[in-house]
Amino acid sequence: MSLPQRLVIATRASRLALWQAEHVRDQLRTLYPACAVELLTLTTRGDQILDRTLSKVGGKGLFVKELENALLDGRADLAVHSLKDVPVDLQAPFELCAVLDRADPRDAFVSNRYASLADLPAGAVVGTSSLRRESQIRARFPALVVKPLRGNLDTRLGKLDKGDYAAIVLAAAGLERLGMGERIRSLLDPADSLPAAGQGALGIEIRDDRDDMRAWLAPLVSADTTACVLAERAVSRKLGGSCQVPLAAFAQIAGDTLSLRALVASPDGTRIVHATHTGPVDQAEAIGEAAASELLDAGAAAILRELLHNEPH
């Protein structure tokens, strides 16, 4: 197989997205020293609409559309995404061909005044962009006020520093990647704040007719992270996971065994349905589907029906 001469990576323009693309660029330059690896920086609809929550403006696909157009028309060879932004029902002619080693998958508590969620006084305002986080916070701390928080990482931290929120909850991986780990006051145990499917992992998307790209990117693939996110995304796919659904799924591997925890909640946190499944690593997708079925039988179906009924049309 011939080696690549020039590769173009499509990326969003945010500081975190650029870090992710540069991280992949640096790995490709190490693998293929003679290859020119360039970035194509694009602004997506998800980056432009900041006055409404994602669940109200079309969900996570808003962050990938413009990058996919660049893959389609040949301006880019690959697109780098935070995996939790990639729709689980990725359609042809696109393919998620590589999942890299996962960073810390946990949620992070960030505050200038308080050390943890438990330290916040009743009525304190917590900011988050995620219904998944919101429902779990409301379930544990019903006296707190949870308000939406959109924008890139710097924007969100700026709103906290301005005093709009007593605390905010973000993905730990993003803060650590941008060298802002010192802003984390505490990390939320997955038992208290179960992560989103794919949280902390980077995924690379290509056109599905690019066999050359698949082969060139193969050395970047993490087998363990791939298995974990396969299980997690299978839960999301079977439940029709979108930004409108407070849904969490988190897998871990010990030896040859994969353990998966998943939940579906009502946005107000009054109802949460849990499922746990374990099995051989090579059965990752089946484990995810089994967990999803268990959730549906245990009450998630009723929650999902309700959410669907209340969705704006």
From TrEMBL:
Necessary cofactors: dipyrromethane
Listed SUPFAM superfamilies: Periplasmic binding protein-like II, Porphobilinogen deaminase (hydroxymethylbilane synthase), C-terminal domain
Keyword NADP in annotation: no
Domain Porphobilinogen deaminase N-terminal, first and last residues per copy: 7-214
Cofactor remark: Binds 1 dipyrromethane group covalently.
Domain Porphobilinogen deaminase C-terminal, chain residue ranges per copy: 227-296
Pathway(s): Porphyrin-containing compound metabolism; protoporphyrin-IX biosynthesis; coproporphyrinogen-III from 5-aminolevulinate: step 2/4
CDD domains the UniProt entry points to: PBP2_EcHMBS_like
CC annotations in GO: cytoplasm
EC number: 2.5.1.61
Modified residues (S-(dipyrrolylmethanemethyl)cysteine): C243
Coiled-coil region: none
Cited InterPro entries: HemC, Porphobilin_deaminase_cofac_BS, Porphobilin_deaminase_N, Porphobilinogen_deaminase_C, Porphobilinogen_deaminase_C_sf
Catalytic activity: 4 porphobilinogen + H2O = hydroxymethylbilane + 4 NH4(+)
One GO BP: protoporphyrinogen IX biosynthetic process
Record keywords: Porphyrin biosynthesis, Transferase
GO terms assigned for molecular function: hydroxymethylbilane synthase activity
Pfam families: Porphobil_deam, Porphobil_deamC
Entries under PANTHER family matching the protein: PORPHOBILINOGEN DEAMINASE
Additional observations: The porphobilinogen subunits are added to the dipyrromethane group.
Entry's family note: Belongs to the HMBS family.
Free-text function comment from the UniProt entry: Tetrapolymerization of the monopyrrole PBG into the hydroxymethylbilane pre-uroporphyrinogen in several discrete steps.
Quaternary state and interactors: Monomer.
Stated name of the protein: Porphobilinogen deaminase
Source species of the chain: Achromobacter animicus
